[in-house]
Write a structure and sequence with these properties.
Blueprint (H helix, E strand, L loop, with lengths): L2 H19 L1 H12 L8 E5 L7 H7 L4 E6 L2 H6 L6 E5 L12 E7 L7 H11 E12 L5 H7 L14 H10 L2 E15 L2 H10 L16 H13 L6 E14 L6
Parallel strand pairs: 1-2, 1-4, 2-3, 4-5
Antiparallel strand pairs: 5-7, 6-7
Helix pairs in contact: 6-9
This protein binds S-adenosylmethionine.
């Protein structure tokens, strides 16, 4: 099984629990919908659409458009709430089965962190018309730091994705032919009743798989207890914290100078 197949399987397994577990994802998606540009659009993509949190908002903003809900997880697409004029497309963001310069808007909430960023951005740029908009949310370096720290030294594998620094994200956008119009960043901390609830929640949103080619070894009980103890050591009055470095970006497809 390749790592990308494993990530896809992880999201498919999570599909039925996702909507209930993904409170933060819903808020992030709603904030991204607010940033959509006021413009005419004939074709709109929701890339990494999941169960369709953005569907109603995208239809409301672009009622005359044809909408494409794209996800590489069949489980997520099956759970997707369908609106009118929506084609559900099972495809990988790295190789979209869409014609070049065919879309006006690519909307993507919390998917890009699972991708090879330059490859996925180049593919988004390819399908966007000149002047089209890429509106996405993602997470940056420092996200899930508590999980990284809790697993440190216990095995040879990473337990979270290697999230990009803000400068790397901007450079990848510019290098892929985008002019950045807006970036918003925010630190958000989620609190959990205990360490096990924190780890379970990460599994329920399908996020416990990492795409660095490392196979996750099963941790023994003692090691898992140590992970939980380390997470519990960070407990605050509101519970056991988990940090997200969130970013919302609006960028325009531009054939301008990429240097
Ligand atoms: C955290 S969920 C976000 C779902 C949705 N956008 C939302 O806001 O709830 C990430 C989604 O991206 C999808 N995904 C991850 N990597 C992908 C890829 N390479 N191509 C297509 N979809 C991908 C997953 O299957 C999952 O549905």
């Amino acid at each position: 099984m390749t790592e990308r197949t494993a990530i896809r399987a992880s999201f498919s397994r999570a599909a039925t629990r996702y909507a209930a577990a993904a409170g933060l994802q819903r808020v992030v998606c709603d904030r991204l919908l607010e940033l959509l540009p006021d413009r005419a659009a004939r074709r709109v993509l929701d890339l990494g659409c999941g169960t369709g949190f953005a569907s109603t908002g995208l239809h409301a903003r672009y009622p005359g458009a044809m909408h494409y809900a794209v996800d590489f997880s069949l489980g997520m697409l099956r759970a997707h709430e369908q609106g009118g004029r929506t084609a559900r497309v099972c495809a990988d963001a790295h190789h979209l089965p869409l014609a070049s310069a065919s879309a006006d808007i690519v909307f993507s909430s919390l998917m890009l962190q699972w991708c090879d960023l330059p490859v996925a951005l180049a593919e988004c740029r390819r399908v966007l018309r000149e002047g089209g908009h890429m509106c996405f949310s993602t997470v940056l370096h420092g996200t899930l730091a508590e999980i990284d720290d809790a697993f440190a030294g216990l095995d040879a594998h990473r337990h979270t994705v290697s999230f990009p620094a803000p400068e790397a994200l901007t450079a990848a956008l510019t290098g892929s032919g985008f002019a950045v119009e807006l970036v918003r960043r925010e630190t958000h901390v989620e609190y959990f009743a205990d360490a096990r609830a924190l780890l379970q929640s990460n599994r329920d949103i399908g996020a416990s798989r990492v795409p660095d080619g490392a196979r996750r070894a099963l941790l023994g009980r003692a090691a898992l207890r140590q992970v939980c103890n380390r997470l519990e050591a960070g407990r605050e009055a509101r519970g056991v914290p988990l940090t997200y470095q969130l970013a919302w970006v609006v960028a325009r497809a531009s054939s301008g100078d990429r240097s």
